[in-house]
């Protein structure tokens, strides 16, 4: 039986700015509208990075609370917040801000290894995720009932994936996000060969998402749909719709993914169908 395709929309991220694409959502109202628009096009989950009034990445729980509230007024899309944030968020306290919001996310990113940023504004800044840090974040998510999305940028990080599984810090079904094409942050190259290589390391009893950055987003997410799993698209990973053509919105990228899935005779999962598959309780 074919699995229904779960589509995630990564709306903003911690790197891109409006100066690079003016359609990038930054403020709570913009982010919430983008989330609802993506839901209406077929996304089951949205991945959120909060920004402050100047457009800088923020871990402020009040901003996350505002975004969550605006989304929940309109739809039941799965809310997935970042605990990575951006290059300016270096403390665990700031990065875990979303977990302390009154309205907590259903899912949150859990970065599975330390990386050094090699390009851009934060070149040379360490993205520190030691084993003890990973354990702290995973323990907090377990306590708060938040599903960890384990972010894996290269095969070495599966060592920590297996560690938190062995420690009982994550619950079945385990959820792994394979991130390809982010070399400035330690990521493996985005190619079919590397994708298949990464999939070989996904643990038993785990589901995986495929995230590909830049021009690789379209071909690798299409491959992932053929394999029947979870795909992530959106302006966090790719601000272009085509060569030299800026994306008009996150919803535009979701709509294209849905069209391709339909051409492949694949069905699209609703938020509640995605919750069931990921082991996330339905909203009450």
Explain this structure.
This protein has 284 residues and is α/β, with parallel strands linked by helices. It has one domain (6-278): Alpha-Beta Barrel (TIM Barrel). The chain is built from 9 helices and 12 strands. The chain has helices at residues 28-41, 61-72, 92-95, 131-144, 158-166, 192-199, 217-226, 250-263, 271-278; strands spanning 6-10, 45-48, 78-81, 107-111, 115-116, 126-127, 147-152, 174-180, 206-212, 230-233, 240-242, 245-246. The strands form 3 sheets. It has an 8-stranded parallel barrel, surrounded by 7 helices. A two-stranded antiparallel sheet has the order 5-6. It has a two-stranded antiparallel ribbon with strand order 11-12. Helix 1 (28-41) links the parallel strand 1 and strand 2 (45-48). Helix 1 (28-41) runs parallel beside helix 2 and helix 1 runs parallel beside helix 8 (250-263). The model has no long low-confidence stretch (mean pLDDT 93).
Using the 3D structure, state the CATH architecture.
Answer: Alpha-Beta Barrel
Span between termini: 30 Å
Number of strands: 12
- Give me the strand/helix succession: EHEHEHEEEHEHEHEHEEEHH
* Tertiary shape: globular
Percentage of β-strand residues: 15-25%
Mean pLDDT over the residues: 93
Q: Flag low-confidence runs.
A: none
By DSSP (H or I, 4+ residues per run), the number of helices equals 9
Strand order of the largest sheet: 1-2-3-4-7-8-9-10
Residue share in helix:
25-40%
Overall structural domain count = 1
CATH topology: TIM Barrel
Give the CATH level 1 class.
Alpha Beta
Q: Rg to the nearest angstrom?
A: 17 Å
Structural class: alpha/beta
């Amino acid at each position: 039986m074919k699995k229904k395709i779960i589509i995630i929309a990564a709306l903003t991220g911690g790197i891109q700015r409006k100066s690079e694409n003016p359609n990038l959502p930054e403020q709570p109202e913009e982010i919430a509208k983008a989330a609802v628009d993506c839901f209406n096009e077929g996304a089951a989950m949205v991945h959120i990075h909060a920004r402050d009034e100047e457009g800088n990445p923020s871990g402020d729980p009040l901003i996350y609370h505002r975004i969550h509230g605006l989304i929940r007024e309109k739809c039941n899309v799965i809310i997935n917040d970042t605990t990575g944030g951006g290059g300016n968020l270096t403390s665990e306290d700031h990065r875990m801000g979303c977990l302390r919001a009154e309205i907590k996310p259903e899912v949150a990113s859990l970065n599975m290894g330390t990386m050094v940023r090699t390009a851009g504004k934060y070149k040379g800044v360490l993205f520190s995720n030691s084993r003890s840090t990973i354990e702290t974040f995973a323990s907090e998510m377990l306590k708060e009932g938040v599903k960890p999305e384990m972010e894996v940028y290269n095969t070495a990080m599966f060592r920590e994936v297996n560690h938190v599984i062995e420690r009982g810090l994550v619950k079945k079904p385990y959820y792994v996000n394979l991130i390809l094409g982010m070399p400035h942050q330690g990521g493996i190259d985005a190619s079919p060969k590397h994708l298949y290589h990464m999939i070989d390391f996904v643990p038993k009893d785990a589901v995986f998402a495929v995230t590909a950055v830049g021009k690789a987003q379209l071909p690798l997410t299409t491959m992932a749909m053929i394999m029947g799993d979870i795909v992530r698209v959106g302006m966090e990973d790719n601000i272009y719709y085509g060569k030299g053509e800026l994306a008009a919105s996150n919803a535009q990228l979701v709509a294209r993914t849905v069209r391709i899935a339909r051409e492949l005779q694949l069905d699209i999962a609703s938020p509640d169908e995605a919750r069931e598959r990921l082991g996330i309780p339905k909203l009450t």
